[in-house]
Structure formats: structure tokens, C-alpha cells
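testing teh design pipeline on a random one, pls ignore if ur not involved
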């Protein structure tokens, strides 16, 4: 498969918490210098897009807001298309403000809501908050439950933390309805990211640290996917049914892999190690 564009996860790929992954800024600079189309795709909803851009720039990574696709951007467009102007937002305050900037006014706690939007509220979750989201769904079967991704957990400086997926699944179970997912691993989210790469609309590869959201999600959307051994990566990821198309030690290895890519190798079933292609690149495949 010809690969001309790149979709890049952020958390666990370019940084873990606030600690940069070595070589990340250089990898992006290499893409920019060679004019390789790329987008940053993230399920982060704990900070607005402008905050993500500021964080990346502080790490020396060249990026503009238009280069970053978040579930908030996708959700705001979806809500507008569905005529939902007053969703109840279960997201951090900074993220809620971005909905307003994008033209969606969140409902007041005591007001009526025409959708329930769930993001990474983190430590803001408690029983009362979860129960309020459940009551809104239970009292009006017609309003949608909108999930800003389904990531199960992420790695912070102090270890693993639950992400939005765990809370969305709880609300789905309690309310008896299926969420509209507007983030990874939804195929629609990946297609929106690929479509934004006008120069390479059907020839993009996904690079991430999550075997499910990044690798499986991208592959189900028809894209090859590269797994990095940073962030939440676990060696056991290579023992399951999901097979990345390549495995890199970190994002720093992207330029070399790009130069030598030949997607279509395999993984040693006995060791889980990625086999080396004839041209020297490390490859793995389903």
C-alpha cells in the first residue's frame, strides 16, 4: 500500500503527562521539511485545542490549530448537524468553553438538555455527577449520548488513569442506549482526519501507542497502523489478535521507517518480535 500521509496520536507518543518523548519534535520537523501531509489526532478532552497547540509548541513541535483534530471539533459539528444547541457537557471547564467558541452553548445544570456529551472529566467524576448524566438520559429517551472517544485508560506521570470510555460504558449500560462516538476508535473520526489530508486522502498511516484505539481503530477504518513502544504500550499488546502493521521503539524512529517502509511483513509468533523487512525496516502485519 502506498503511504503518503500520517495521522499522529499525541498522548503517549509525543509526551507522557508533561514529559516529552525524545525525538518527537525532530520527527515532526522532518515531516514538515519534506512536505509530508500530517495531522495530530487525539482523544484528549481535558484541555481545549489551543491548549494542546501551546503544549506542543512549548516542546518545540511546529503545529497550528488546523493541524489538530479533537473529538470536541467533531462533536460540535455533529451536534450542529443534529440541531442540538444545548447539550449537557460532562467535560472540564476549559473544554466546555471550546464548545462555546465553536458555536455550541452547553446547558446549565438546572436547564433542559438536548444531548449528553461525555468527555475526560477525570477527577471531576463522582456519584452525583454520574447520576445527573444518567437521569438526563433516563428522563428523555430521545436525547443522544455523545462520547468524545472510547479510550479505556491513559498513562500519566503517576501511572495509569481511567479515561472517558469507562464512564461512557457505564452510562450506556445504565440507560440502555448506545453512544454516538466522536473520537477514536470510531471509523468516522479516522475518515474525517484522512479527509483533511487533501494531498493524500486515502494513503495515510496512523501512529499511536494504544493497540485498540489507535491500531485496531485505524485498521477497521481501512488504514495501516504503526504502534510505538512508549506511553501505554505493553509487550503483551503484541500477543493478541490485533496486529500492527509496524512497531517502532518511539516516534523518533518514524523518519527511518518512512524511508524504508514496505508494509506487509509479520510478527514472530514465538517471541512477539517484529520481523525485519528486506530493506531494513521493522514490519509487522495481520
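output:
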Amino acid at each position: 500500500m502506498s503511504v503518503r500521509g500520517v495521522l499522529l496520536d499525541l498522548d503517549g507518543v509525543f509526551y507522557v503527562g508533561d514529559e516529552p518523548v525524545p525525538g518527537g519534535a525532530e520527527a515532526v520537523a522532518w515531516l514538515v521539511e519534506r512536505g509530508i501531509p500530517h495531522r495530530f489526532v487525539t482523544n484528549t478532552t481535558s484541555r481545549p485545542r489551543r491548549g494542546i497547540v501551546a503544549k506542543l509548541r512549548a516542546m518545540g513541535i511546529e503545529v497550528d490549530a488546523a493541524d489538530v483534530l479533537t473529538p470536541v471539533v467533531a462533536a460540535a459539528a455533529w451536534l450542529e448537524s443534529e440541531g442540538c444547541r444545548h447539550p449537557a457537557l460532562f467535560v472540564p471547564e476549559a473544554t466546555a468553553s471550546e464548545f462555546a467558541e465553536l458555536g455550541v452553548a452547553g446547558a446549565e445544570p438546572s436547564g433542559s438538555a438536548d444531548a449528553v456529551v461525555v468527555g475526560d472529566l477525570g477527577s471531576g467524576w463522582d456519584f452525583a455527577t454520574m447520576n445527573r448524566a444518567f437521569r438526563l438520559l433516563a428522563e428523555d429517551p430521545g436525547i443522544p449520548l455523545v462520547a468524545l472517544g472510547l479510550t479505556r485508560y491513559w498513562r500519566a506521570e503517576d501511572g495509569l488513569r481511567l479515561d472517558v470510555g469507562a464512564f461512557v460504558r457505564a452510562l450506556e449500560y445504565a440507560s440502555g442506549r448506545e453512544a454516538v462516538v466522536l473520537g477514536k476508535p470510531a471509523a468516522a473520526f479516522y475518515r474525517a482526519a484522512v479527509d483533511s489530508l487533501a494531498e493524500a486522502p486515502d494513503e495515510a498511516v496512523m501512529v499511536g501507542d494504544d493497540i485498540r484505539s489507535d491500531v485496531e481503530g485505524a485498521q477497521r477504518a481501512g488504514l495501516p497502523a504503526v504502534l510505538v513502544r512508549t506511553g501505554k504500550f505493553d509487550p503483551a499488546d503484541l500477543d493478541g489478535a490485533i496486529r500492527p502493521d509496524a512497531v517502532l521503539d518511539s516516534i523518533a524512529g518514524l523518519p527511518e521507517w518512512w524511508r524504508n517502509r514496505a508494509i506487509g511483513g509479520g510478527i514472530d509468533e514465538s517471541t512477539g518480535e517484529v520481523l525485519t523487512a528486506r530493506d531494513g525496516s521493522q514490519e509487522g502485519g495481520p
